[in-house]
Amino acid sequence: MRAVVQDRYGTSDTWHLTDIDLPRIEPHEVLVRVHAAGLDRGTWHEMTGRPYLMRLMGFGLRAPKHRVPGRAVAGTVAAVGADVTRFTVGDEVFGVSRGAFAEYAAAREDKLAPKPSTLSFEQAAAVPISATTALQGLTLGHVDANQRVLVIGASGGVGSYAVQLAKTFGAQVTGVCSASKADLVRSLGADHTIDYATTDPTDGPTRYDLIVDIAGNAPLRRLRRALTPTGNLVIVGGESKGNVTGGFGRSLRAPLLSIFVRQRLTMLASTEHHADLLTLTALIDAGEVTPSVDAIDPLDHAAHAMRRLEAGSVRGKTVIVMPHG
What we know:
single chain; alpha/beta; Rossmann fold; 10 helices
């Protein structure tokens, strides 16, 4: 089968398209004939091996643990393991696999769900990682109706879902993004937008009940300043130039600081499970959540798609499609 392969950490230049064997599946796994795969920020971390802390967390010390990148997948079931009971060959599924940037990928049964009937494969591939992360982040932050919610990084993959999902809870949402992407964030349901290039979102008079910080880099003291006295902060990600801990430094400090203050400061360690996919499917089928797909690229342009993600020019999600469609 055709697949994108990476044998060492580095830039997208380390990705190359080649022929490899089909993945072998375990008894609890499903072989998915991939129609489309989502490109996520986490794939960049796995590609570069940065911050180095990730390598110690099991991603591979000197090279990626998994040669084929990509995790978010949408496709049809090609084969099932001996212990699989929820799927049969031919079922349309979406979820999380290992090695999604290939014509076939292996996935655990409990990380897949039936593909929403209202979505194309391309749209469905944009859901599993980003939407699940957003849902878990809001749940961890105890989002509720009439709360003031600030989403930092509102125009990205996770942020575009966080805005929509917070609105389904009845929250008043302010999205932080660039001026060029404010129209997208408002179209997703945000009540207000803040241009981070001209305005510090933590320096205004508004105090938020919940801040969801997605790939931001504001110090904890500034984020706390923007919270109500008993507000919640959920750090979903973070980007900085540090190679050792990178943006994870804030994530590690937040729970420790939370012990000594009234505000609840947390970090999200998301885990994908089919139960969240089913929750998202219900919201998608009800028309309350819609994937925001910015670009669809063929498999042989995956490296180019990653460079766009690195440049910050993506609005919402980028999806990679396989040669067989």
